[in-house]
Write a structure and sequence with these properties.
alpha+beta, 5-stranded antiparallel β-sheet
Length: about 180
């Protein structure tokens, strides 16, 4: 005959407590897991722009401090082909302005006396995480450049239309941008 008092088992209350704890933990962790891939793609975009900026600096060293004159899209900058084996594309195909590859290049200032040779540039990528703040993040809502040097922020403010598809009114619909330049 079986003696039920000696069997070791969980009570209904203990099972409900364990299920509740698992439910609470899953509710707390799911948003972090879901947001992980978009944060990883944003990190890739930032790394891509750093590589492009390095290639632009190498180009400038070889061309007397001048940066390439050219198309608005980084992928179309043939001048970078000598400095990068592959010009990176956006990991998800997001576009900054009208660049299908996602990375936009624009000239900020030109070297005197000829106003056709750029001596300053900016490059930008659209980010998926719109609440991101910090270095080199362009905040569309308040049109703030954080924490650029004052001279670069002034140059960028003059070219906000280049970042936002031609009009500053378009900025809030484009999400956050990661911007670097010189």
């Amino acid at each position: 005959m079986l003696n039920f008092s000696r069997l070791k088992a969980f009570t209904l209350i203990e099972l409900l407590i364990v299920i509740t704890i698992i439910g609470i933990l899953s509710v707390a962790l799911v948003p972090r897991i879901v947001g992980g891939p978009s944060k990883a793609r944003d990190a890739q975009r930032m790394a891509d722009l750093q590589q492009i900026a390095t290639a632009l600096e190498l180009y400038a060293q070889d061309h007397g401090g001048a940066y390439p004159v050219g198309p608005i899209c980084v992928a179309n900058l043939a001048a970078l082909n000598a400095y990068m084996t592959n010009i990176p594309n956006d990991p998800k195909g997001l576009a900054a302005k009208t660049c299908g590859t996602g990375y936009v290049y624009f000239e900020l200032e030109y070297a005197p006396p000829v106003d056709t040779i750029p001596n300053s540039y900016g490059i930008a990528a659209a980010l998926e995480t719109t609440s991101k703040t910090g270095p080199n993040i362009f905040d569309h809502d308040g049109f703030k450049f954080l924490p650029f040097t004052e001279s670069f922020a002034t140059k960028m403010s003059d070219h906000v239309g280049d970042l936002c598809g031609g009009a500053t009114a378009d900025c809030p619909t484009n999400g956050s941008l990661y911007v670097i330049g010189r």
